[in-house]
Amino acid sequence: MPQLWVGLSALWAVALAYSDCRHRRLPNVATLGGGLIGLLALAVTGTSPLGASGMSMLAGSGLALLLTLPGYFLRQLGAGDVKLLLAVALLGGTAAVLAAFVVGALVTVAAAGLWIFVAPRFGLMPGSGRWLPFGAGLALGFVLAIAGGQVGEVQWPQ
């Protein structure tokens, strides 16, 4: 996996995490742009920028939709979260989707628990609606997947 793509992908994810934390928004140009880069790399090289095969990208895309669309339809996730995980699939494949989703869920649950425990002590309460940036957790999970080499096909224990 070329180190340039590793760095650019991590930088892309960090920028999206910042945007989601700061503005509660994942811009279409960034999420869709990441996915488009993955598709262009597949067309040119036969793999994703991070080395995932076309089958892993396809399976990861299906998994990303399976994991996020129910939350979107229940109004618990935003469309940006769905597009972000889909872009992760097109950049890093199935393993990256699993890592990003698991870490994102754990980070979000931990943040929610901390907020629920700490906020009332300072007279703060979350507003109605979506108040935790799940996309930031997904982005963190993707960065950790890249750092740990968890891209491409899922390697099952034998």
Describe the fold and architecture.
The protein has 158 residues and is mostly helical. Helix content is 72%, strand content 0%. It contains five helices and no strands. The protein starts with a helix and ends in an 11-residue tail after the last helix. The mean pLDDT is 88.
Explain briefly what this protein structure is.
The protein has 158 residues and is mainly alpha-helical. The protein contains five helices and no strands.
Annotation, overall tally of beta strands: 0
Q: Secondary-structure element order, as H and E?
A: HHHHH
Shape: elongated
Terminal residue distance: 25 Å
**Main sheet specs:** none
Low-confidence stretches: none
Total count of helical runs of at least 4 residues:
5
Strand content: under 5%
Mean pLDDT: 88
Which structural category do the helix and sheet elements fall into? mainly alpha
Helix content: over 70%
Q: Radius of gyration from the CA trace? A: 16 Å
Set out the fold topology.
Blueprint lengths: L2 H21 L4 H18 L8 H20 L5 H40 L15 H14 L11
Helix pairs in contact: 1-5, 2-4, 3-4, 4-5
What brief labels describe this structure?
single chain, 158 residues, mainly alpha, 5 helices
